[in-house]
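User: We ran a pulldown and think these components assemble together. Before we commit to crystallization trials, I'd like a predicted model of the whole complex to look at. Sequences follow.
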Amino acid sequence: MMHLPNHWPYIAAAYGLTIGCSLVLGIGAALRLRRAKTRLAAVESQLRHRESSAS
Amino acid sequence: MRPTPNLLHRYANPGQFLRLARALQPWLSTGAIIFLTVGIVWGLFFAPADWQQGETVRIMYVHVPMAWLASSCYLGLAICGLLSLVWRHPLADLAAIEIGPVGACAAALCLITGSLWGQPMWGTWWVWDARLTSVLVLFFLYLGHIALIRAFDEPARGQRAAAILALAGAIDLPIIKFSVQWWNTLHQPDSITLTGAPTMSMTMLWPLLITTIGFTLGVAAVIFARLSAAIHESRTRQLMARSRLNRSDRSAA
Amino acid sequence: MTRKTRRLWIVIACLACISSAAALTLRAFSSNIVFFMAPSQVKAHPPAPDRTIRLGGMVMAGSLHRITENGAPVNSFNVTDGQAAVEVHYTGILPDLFREGQSVVALGTVQKDGGFTASEVLAKHDETYMPKEVAEELKRTGKWDPRFGKAPDAASWDTMTAKKAGG
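Assistant: Here's a predicted model for the assembly, 475 residues in total across the polymer chains.
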């Protein structure tokens, strides 16, 4: 049997960093999209309300 | 609404793009989750150890997708630059703003996972060979693009400058690809090429393909979500600006 | 010519200029971009004795000698590119991947006697990824000895699984 090196800490660090970054990017994008949608909806309804009350 | 003349301009309309994104989003994200779960579990626990690298070869299943994504996101930036400079495509600049940070993340992860692979295998965290250096240059191109596109008070000027940087920096992509063939490097040549059979066991190639597809779908989903969010945000800004204008008109009258 | 086509041609012209500039620069510097020198290059044009170079090649089978001197491992081995060989001396711990038949890159200086004193040895692995059971099987059946060169053509083993190789 030849000597096979074992370097699990390096493997764990590589996977941990990659999965962590992917999760942060993915969840961040989803939250940002939801916030942007609700904010746009709020502004639109507010403007519509103001226009109908002004006319 | 005006008729859409061709494919290039069909998704120039942000509304059309939002509809496309909304239709694709669930497929992209579920696909990414399934492929990534299967690929990572397979790569981490079921793929065989390599005859010379042992278990450490498993870093490949995250390192290679990151390298692929770093290059393809930059290709995306360059295409956005071309669309923005030549056709003044309205979505291209918005897309460039959103793709930049994602690509920079992929490039950084490619460098870090490569370093974590190099230290136990080669015996060094970093060497200045042609492959590693050209990928580091790609990372700095991303940082430059991110900074430049936000550097001006008038967004159009920053977007113009960033588009030029993205196009000029695309020269780095063939250099990265062929560096391992043109010069002798510490980094090994590509195992998967268009011209020949892969010099890799099928038992390792499958998990690699699956994680690559998974990360690609995931990045597509993230970019679509970021771009949709950016369109919503810019609409909100326009509406706010218009209402402020109306109010100031009314108060002036 | 419309404004769009004019802009397209300007962009194409700029890209052509930049790529030719990059290609010329890379051609001019190609000898500096090379990460290491092969033993035959070192033999043909020996660098100055005080100049640090990187020497790259395969560790020749049967050439590795390890002794321990004052508690530190002293290694000597021949590095070859198939045309010439250089004897390398290195005091220190070799990387895990180091073995006979492995490609290595050594950083150091060429001595007056033609030997090479290394201050750092890096292992360079090739692009062949093979389960270790398959490698054992290829060695057992005499199809490949890793000490004497690259693995056989991938098509002959890439569908061999651990189970088939072990049984």
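Residues 1-5 of chain B have pLDDT under 50 and may be disordered. That may be worth checking against your pulldown data before setting up trials.

User: Thanks, that helps.
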